Amino acid sequence: MKAEIISIGSELTSGQNLDTNAQWLSQRLAEIGIVVGWHTTVADDFEANLDVFQTATRRAALVLATGGLGPTQDDLTREVLARMAGVELVLHADSLARIQEMFTSRRRVMPERNSVQALFPAGAEPIPNPRGTAPGIWMKHGASLVAAMPGVPSEMFAMYRDSVQPRLLAAGLGGAVQIQRKINCFGAGESAVEAKLLDLTRRGHVPEVGITVSDAVISLRILARAATPAEAQAQIAPVEATIRERLGEWVFGVEQEELEHAVAQHLEKEHLTLATAEGVTGGLIARLLTSIPGASGWYKGGVVAYQTDAKVQHLAVPHALIHEHGLFSAPVAEAMATACRIRFGADLGVSSVGIAGPGGGSTDRPVGLVWVGLSWDGGARTQTFSWIGTRKEVQSRAARLALNLVRLYKP
Ligand code: AMP
Ligand code: MG
């Protein structure tokens, strides 16, 4: 049994607004074990809507639609549902009274046009709307259950929670639970990570394991479906243990944890302080670090030394070093990391240099090439990487590469 979500509105198909309702509803359905097979977005056009609803009710056991229930001419959902069912629209007196009451309670006169919101396809049931004027529509068509809800997210959320979800459970849909566990990794590419997990990521594996990548951070999602949360957790636990064992120090966190959280935990635990010297990342490393509450406990401060002169003047990077190795090099990254560590009196210094692009690259120093450095009392470590990406991507990946050096530092 699969569900389809239909998002109605020309503001969505034109690209003006992003369809967030489908995302939210899919997450809620997943929580009660209903699998969504389709997201369909359709403009405010009668024929297109009719076609979309006919298709959806042929293939999906549950159809949840949002939008098109307003009082204006472009709000077509009620008429479309009536046409699909081959029935008339009939006035629901209680709904009309409630809509009138909404206006009266705000000392306003109900515009005549709002009365259309009390019309329902014959045989359909209204779904109360605690947050707005438009009731939703609940009906059966063929073998499908259909719920049409308002497009305004806050109204839709309340209607789904108060009325739609209870009806789905009462109808015997769902009932199972779906639990996700996200494991976040850094330090290898997507295919290298997957190569260690091929037996887990294959289709049909229970629980399902998927891989996604964002800003060079690889996330593994373990998705378990079972009758109870405890059963789902029991599916997840051994798979998570296997993943952690095989990926080792690539794993830095779970769920919403980012590298900067891992860095913060590491520095707090080891009682270490940190300073930054940034070129290519332009302050992004500092920004990520200071996004963590309590960063003042371990982050001393940093400099953005962007031009070559600034690196020489403010971080005492020797001209000769730059001349000999080039600006985008391990020795320069190391010199910057050491300089900031000493100047800020920190235990660790971390740095970045590189070419964010789109211009400024050459054959041996291409756009996307970065060096990051980590310095501590008694040693230093550098790392390089070359990404193909936009300026923004190169900068955010370089910042993460630098944070990762800090995370992996072993005192
Ligand atoms: P409607 O119920 O079609 O009159 O939609 C009212 C408003 O809700 C629209 O102008 C949008 O701002 C918002 N909205 C409608 N559909 C969606 C959706 N799928 N995701 C997010 N916002 C939406
Ligand atoms: Mg609309």
Annotation keywords:
411 residues; 6-stranded mixed sheet; 5-stranded mixed sheet; 40% helix; elongated; binds adenosine monophosphate; binds magnesium ion
Number of strands: 17
Sheet/helix structural class: alpha/beta
Give the helix tally: 15
> Main β-sheet: number of strands, strand sense, barrel status?
6 strands, mixed
Mean pLDDT across the residues is: 95
What is the global morphology? elongated
Q: Point out poorly predicted stretches.
A: none
Strand content: 25-35%
Strand sequence of the main sheet, in spatial order?
2-1-3-8-7-6
Bound molecules: adenosine monophosphate, magnesium ion
What's the end-to-end separation, in Å? 54 Å
Give the fraction of residues assigned to helices: 25-40%
Rg estimate, integer Å = 28 Å
In short:
With 411 residues, this protein is an alpha/beta fold.
Q: How would you describe this structure to a colleague?
A:
With 411 residues, this protein is α/β, with parallel strands linked by helices. Helix content is 40%, strand content 26%. It is built from 15 helices and 17 strands. The chain has a six-stranded mixed sheet, sandwiched between helices. Strands 14-13-15-16-17 form a five-stranded mixed sheet. A four-stranded antiparallel sheet has the order 10-11-9-12. Helix 2 packs parallel to helix 6, helix 3 packs across helix 4 and helix 10 runs parallel beside helix 15. The radius of gyration is 28 Å and the shape is elongated. The model has no long low-confidence stretch (mean pLDDT 95). Magnesium ion binds next to loops.
